[in-house]
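Lecture 7 notes: from sequence to structure.
We start with the chain below.
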Amino acid sequence: MSQIVSQPINEEALPVPDRPDHRQGRAVSTANTLAFGRMNRESYQDFLANKAQLADSGGFEPTNLPAHLFDFQRLLVEWAVRQGRGGLFADCGLGKSPMALAWADQIHNRTGKPVLFLTPLAVGFQIATEATKFGHDAALSRSGKIPAPITVTNYEQLAKFDPHDFAGVVCDESSILKGFDGATRAAVTEFMRQIQYRLLCTATAAPNDYTELGTSSEALGGLGYMDMLGRFFINKDRKQSSRGGRARRWELSDRIGMERPGEWRLKGPAEVPFWRWVASWARAIRKPSDYGFSDERHVLPTLVERTHVVEPNRPADGHLFDVPAHGLGEEREEARRTLTERCEAAAAALADADTGVAWCHLNDESALLARLIPGAVELSGSDDPAVKEEKLEAFSRGQIQFLVTKPKLASLGLNWQHAHRMTYFPSHSYEQMYQSVRRMWRFGQTRPVEVDFITTPGGKRVLTNLQRKAVAADQMFASLIEHMNNAMRVETIVYDKEMELPPWAS
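Predicted structure tokens for the same chain:
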């Protein structure tokens, strides 16, 4: 008798796209036939299981999960523990930290060894606080010492730790790995390779393109980035190299709103195998109903967005009349000409707020905003890491009224539900804008979140580009969940009767 069961797919068993020619295929078939003659019953069953592409779990059965987990969180933690190495791509406010802490606790209880919890700068204290709240034994470390079974530190301190001391590692806000040429990604990936259990957590695993999932797979010890491209993707520009400067070109095109050069797309025959492969090592969720649970406790508050267009008080050099900027160079020049006016507009937008954040991108913007906004504290890239942490912790605790900073410094991981007002100078980076807004606009926020976008006539093009990217990113996340859920329901025949070997294999 046979039955139908749902199984994810073992990526190692997926077919390689570059097939040998027919003559080679016949030679392989002959070799396989000869090999079968030497097979015993067990190896033949293994062969069939491999052909059926059944995924092997690298984890174990979870026990005594915390009672505070929501139903959908429990489901995802159970999957992650059984998986051993996996990615949790949960949207902001869905409780990645409680899920990751529960996973880390399971790893420690199973192995008796500690788990390293990596976070962006200044997020560590937040994780340690949540751990205490939920009854986990966790502590912050900046010295390389291991003070608790769950040791929390930031990525900047990674070099102080020995990977052989840990049974597991959590990479919080793992989108940091998407910097393909980044030294941090290389260091984190190499560190993780030496640890058995691994968990990646982020809301933006692939905000721009599905190929960004490759760095996550590589960090988990699965299919490498370049191997993923070769197996599942084809480059629209056959002359475009996938190595070296690809990430830099993409970064540039993302900033200026251009269509990405050498864009990669899924091969037609590879679409289903690709999503089965992703589903074998990751789970994505935007809301509990994505997995059949109620959204009653997870409803986002109202998001109020206002746009303020600041007119330049003088034309660009060499022009009699002001003309809206076109292109990255003109946009930057227009931003410089309107520096004072934009900062004054941002300060005015926050004048009636009890607390808030002013997001900017340039050092001159940051310095001027800090002077114009009463009670503001500037967090800059030149600050010592310890000073950065101190300022971010102080704002999170309500000890600083207004924070002036940049998305690249503070847009990841922090929960700022105590505030609901912000100003933002738009750039072409959708991920930076999304993460910045979601520091406040998240589940658990009790007030409408108000965002004032301060821009220029030429900057309206930037906002249009961001809106386009927002629609595309939402569609991508929805497709990710749909495809992964479909892949989870892949039907595979499992035979439960005694296997009979064919005569030629006896």
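Points to note: The longest helix spans residues 460-488. The CA atoms of residues 73 and 95 lie 8 Å apart.
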